[in-house]
Amino acid sequence: MDDALLIVKGLKMYFPVTRGLLRRKIAEVKAVDNVSFDVKAGETLGLVGETGCGKTTTGRCILRLYRPTAGQIIFEGLDISYLHESKIRSIRRKMPLIFQDPYSSLDPRQSAGSIVGEPIKFHGLVSNKKEYKERVADLFRMVGLNPDMMNRVPHEFSGGQRQRIGIARALACEPSMIVCDEPISALDVSIQSQIINLLEELQDRVEGLSYLFIAHDLSVVRHISNRVAVMYLGRIVELTESKKLYDNPLHPYTQALISAIPIPDRAVEKHRKQIILRGEVPSPLNPPDGCHFHPRCPVAIPDCSQILPPLVDVGDSHQVACIRVKH
Amino acid sequence: MALLTVENLKTYFHTDFGLVKAVDGVSYEINEKEIIGIVGESGCGKSVSQLSTLQLITSPPGQIVDGKVIFEGRDLLQFSANGSEMRSIRGGQIAIIFQEPMTSLNPTLSVFQQIGEMLELHLKMDKEMQRKHSIELLKQVGIPDAERRIDDYPHQFSGGMRQRVMIAMALSCNPKILIADEPTTAVDVTTQAQLLALMQNLVNQYNTSLIIVTHNLGVVARYAERIYVMYAGRIVESGTCDDIFNQPKHPYTIGLLKCVPRLDEAEGTKLVPIEGLPPNLINMPSTCAFLPRCPYSIDKCREEVWPPLKRVNGQYVSCYVDTRR
Ligand SMILES: Nc1ncnc2c1ncn2[C@@H]1O[C@H](COP(=O)(O)OP(=O)(O)OP(=O)(O)O)[C@@H](O)[C@H]1O
Ligand SMILES: Nc1ncnc2c1ncn2[C@@H]1O[C@H](COP(=O)(O)OP(=O)(O)OP(=O)(O)O)[C@@H](O)[C@H]1O
Ligand SMILES: [Mg+2]
Ligand SMILES: [Mg+2]
C-alpha cells in the first residue's frame, strides 16, 4: 500500500433527508457506505455501477467537495479527510475533475485559451506572460487542438473538442490524478474512442499520472482501467484487475452486469449465457437488509438477508463482498 | 413479399440554416416475425425515417418529399397524415416505443385510461373487456400487483416500470410491427437487458415483427437477424447480422466496429477511432458523406456522386472501394 497515491478507507457519505419548516431529519441516504480502495501512481482505477450507486459522490468526497460522514482519504501521504477548506485548494489542483457534460461545465463567455490557462494563473505555475502563452499553446497541442483556436468560445467547438478543452484545463493543474466522471457519456460513439485514446496517450506521456475513471459503461471502464471497482447501492461489491473481472467475475451482481452487456460480435453473442435479474435497483433511502443485492440475487441463501458482507480479499489481488464466494 | 417495404424515402427539414436532408433515399424492408436493427450515430436519421413511415413528421419544418411505404400492399404515404386509415394503422398495426417514456405516456391519464382508449379505438372492446385485457397486459410485461397498479398514473412508476407500461401499451392491440426507437438508452444496463429480453419474448409469442433502432451494435448483434447501417441520412450497408459482424464491408461499419471497446477484448487492445466529425446534414456535397473521414478513399470517391447500394455477396454496400483487399 506504500506506493499508493490515494488511499480511501471506510468512506461514508450520508445525506440527510429533511422535512418541514424546521428541516427535521427524517431519514438518511447512504450514498456511499463504507468504501475502501487505493489508486497507485500511474494507474487507472475504474469505478463502475448503475445509476445512483454512489460513483459521483465517491469522487466528490475524494476532492473534498463534500465533508465525508466518516472514513479517511489519504492523498500523497496526507490525510485530507477533514482538512480545512483553506488548505484544500492546493490539494485540489493535484487532482482536478473532468465532467460528463462538456456543454455545461465550461464558462460560455470565456475563451478556450483562458479556460485552459486559468489554473496556471490561479496557482501561479509560470513566472511570466511569455511562459504562460507557451504553456497554454503546449496544452492545446497535447490534447490535439490547434492553438489557433484559443480565442474561440466553447460553443464554437464540437462536443469532443470541448471535452478536450476540459482535459487541457485539468492538465494545466499539473495533476497527479485526474478524476474523470463520465467523461465520454455525452459524446457520439465515433468520438468517444478519440477521447479514450487521448486519455491513454496522456498517461503514457505524463510520468505517474493516475486516473479515477467513473462511468456506467463497463466495456469502456474495463478498456481504460488497470483495476475496476464495481459498486452497488453505495458499496463496492467487487474489485479486481480488469482482465480478471471479465474472465473470472465472482460476485453474482458483476456476473449479471457482464452478461447484460451485449458484445458486437454475432458469433460470440450466440454462445453467451444471459442472467436476467429480477426487479430493479432498490432505493438507497431504504436498502434491503443484509446484502443489498440479495432480493435480486439468483444464488441468494437465507443468510444473505441477514449478513451485510464486507469486501474481503480472496487472494490474487481480487476482492469481493459475498458470503457465497468460497475462499 | 415483405410485410413492410420502404422505398427511396426522403424527408427534408427547411431550417433557417438551410435544407436538412435528414433522410435521403432510404430503403429497407422487414418480413413477418423478423427482428431487424437500424444502427447509426446520433443525427443520422434513424428516428426521422421511422417517424416518416407513420407520417408523424411535423410539417413545417419537415416534409416527406419522396418515397413509398408499402404495408400489406398499400402505400401508407398516400393516406392523409391525420385521416382514419393512418390512425388505425398507428398503434393498431404498427406501434412505436420511444426512448423517453414520458413522450408517449400522457401524465394526466391513468395507465388504464390510456391502454383502454387504444383497445376501444382499435379493437372496439367494452369497458369490462378493456379492464381485463389491460390487467393481463401489465402482468405479461412483468408489473407486479397489476390489478391495483392499472389505475396508477405514469409518474407513480419507476423508470424501468414505465418502459414496461409503454411496451404493454404498444403491444395492446397486437400490432404486426413494433418499432422500438432507442427504447432502453435511458435505463441502466441490467434493466435494459430485462426489457430487451421481454420484448424479444413477446414478439416471438405474438408473431410481431420488431424494428430495433439503436446506436449500440452489441444490441443488434444480440437480438436482430438483419441489420441496416445508416450514415448521414442514408443506408450505407445492410445484410444479415451473421455476415455483417463477420465481415463488414463499408468503411463506416468497419470503423464503428473497431472504435468501440468490447467487453471481451484482450488486454492492451487499442481502439481505432473514426477521425473527424459526423456531418451536420446541411448543404451536403453530392459525393459520399463519409469521404472526409474515410481511410479507404480513392480518386473515384472524390469525383463521383454518393455510390448507390450494390450487392456484394449477400450484403448491400454503398462504396466504390473493395475494402476486402
Ligand atoms: N447532494 C445530495 N443530497 C442528497 N442525496 C444525494 C446527493 N447527491 C447524491 N445523492 C444521492 O446519493 C445516491 C448516489 O448518487 P450519485 O450521484 O453518487 O450516484 P452515481 O453513481 O454517480 O449515479 P449516476 O450514474 O446517475 O451519475 C443517489 O441516490 C442520489 O440521489
Ligand atoms: N424538427 C426538426 N427540424 C430540423 N431538423 C431536424 C428536425 N428533426 C430532426 N432534424 C434533423 O434531422 C437529422 C436526423 O435526426 P434523427 O432524429 O432522425 O436522428 P437519429 O439518428 O434518430 O439520432 P439520435 O441517435 O440522436 O436519436 C438530424 O440532423 C436532426 O438535426
Ligand atoms: Mg454520477
Ligand atoms: Mg433518434
Describe this structure in words.
The complex is a heterodimer of chains A (327) and B (325). Chain A is of the alpha/beta class. Chain A folds into two domains: 4-96 and 177-188 and 207-320, P-loop containing nucleotide triphosphate hydrolases (Rossmann fold); 103-174, no CATH class. Helices cover 31% and strands 24% of the residues of chain A. Chain A has helices spanning 55-62, 85-94, 112-122, 129-142, 159-172, 189-205, 218-224, 242-247, 252-260, 266-269, and strands at residues 4-19, 24-40, 44-48, 70-75, 78-79, 97-98, 177-181, 210-215, 227-232, 235-241, 312-313, 318-320. In chain A, the strands form two sheets. In chain A, strands 6-7-8-3-9-10-12-11 form an eight-stranded mixed beta sheet, sandwiched between helices. In chain A, strands 2-1-4-5 form a four-stranded antiparallel beta sheet. In chain A, helix 3 crosses helix 4 and helix 3 runs parallel beside helix 5. In chain B, 32% of the residues lie in helices and 23% in strands. An eight-stranded mixed beta sheet of chain B has the order 6-7-8-3-9-10-12-11, with helices on both faces. Chain B is built from eleven helices and twelve strands. In chain B, helix 3 packs across helix 4 (127-140) and helix 4 crosses helix 6. By secondary structure, chain B is of the alpha/beta class. The interface between A and B is large, with 42 and 47 residues. The complex binds adenosine-5'-triphosphate (2 copies) and magnesium ion (2 copies).
